[in-house]
Design a protein that fits this description.
This protein has 157 residues and is an alpha+beta fold. The protein has one domain: 2-Layer Sandwich (Beta-Lactamase). The protein contains four helices and six strands; from the N terminus they run ααβββαβββα. It has helices at 12-27, 33-48, 82-90, 142-153, and strands at residues 52-59, 62-69, 76-78, 94-96, 114-122, 125-134. The protein has a six-stranded antiparallel sheet, with helices on both faces. Helix 1 (12-27) runs antiparallel to helix 2 (33-48) and helix 1 packs parallel to helix 4. The radius of gyration is 15 Å and the shape is globular. 34% of the residues are buried. It binds methionine sulfoxide.
Length: 157
């Protein structure tokens, strides 16, 4: 494993293309899920410095807070609640351009203005979600969905 990440300036696509192989190398051969999720959050934080980047894990039919980088966050989210619980229920990525316009959005930080949540699906079940919050409106689009999907496909659950 490289001791330091090589961080890239440029378009978001260029940044993803630089960071993804490094994330793959970082978690390659490491079987511990929490260690890998923690390092993925840290790598994404270092590269993109989003407000909040983290995972919620499905445990006993609830989403429970996992490794993250950013301000403290709510610990449990029920299926169908908030953006995270909705992405879980619908088994689909949700991109929210303005969190004020998402009915039922759960506010963890008043600084959060937009959000992307990707469900992580294994054997047709959601096992976790990746949730990222941005301080700007419309902070995420299909480019993020594409590359973040690639990152979560690397994780062994
Ligand atoms: N906003 C999320 C809650 C989690 S925090 O953003 C970290 C939601 O509505 O599900």
């Amino acid at each position: 494993m490289a001791e330091e990440l090589i961080l890239k300036k440029g378009t978001r696509e260029e940044q993803y293309l630089e960071i993804i192989p490094q994330i793959a190398a970082l978690i390659d051969g490491e079987p511990d899920l929490i260690a890998n999720l923690a390092n993925i959050c840290a790598a994404l934080k270092q590269q993109f410095d989003w407000l909040w980047t983290g995972f919620y894990l499905v445990k006993d039919n609830e989403l429970v807070l996992g490794p993250f980088q950013g301000p403290i966050a709510c610990t449990r989210i029920k299926k169908g609640r908030g953006v995270c619980g909705t992405a879980w229920e619908q088994m689909e990525t949700i991109i929210v351009q303005d969190v004020n316009k998402f009915p039922g959005h759960i506010t963890c930080s008043s600084l959060s203005k937009s959000e992307i949540v990707l469900p992580i699906i294994r054997q047709n079940e959601v096992v976790a979600v990746l949730d990222i919050d941005h301080t700007m409106y419309a902070g995420f689009d299909k480019t993020d969905e594409l590359f973040l999907s690639e990152i979560i496909s690397l994780i062994h659950f």
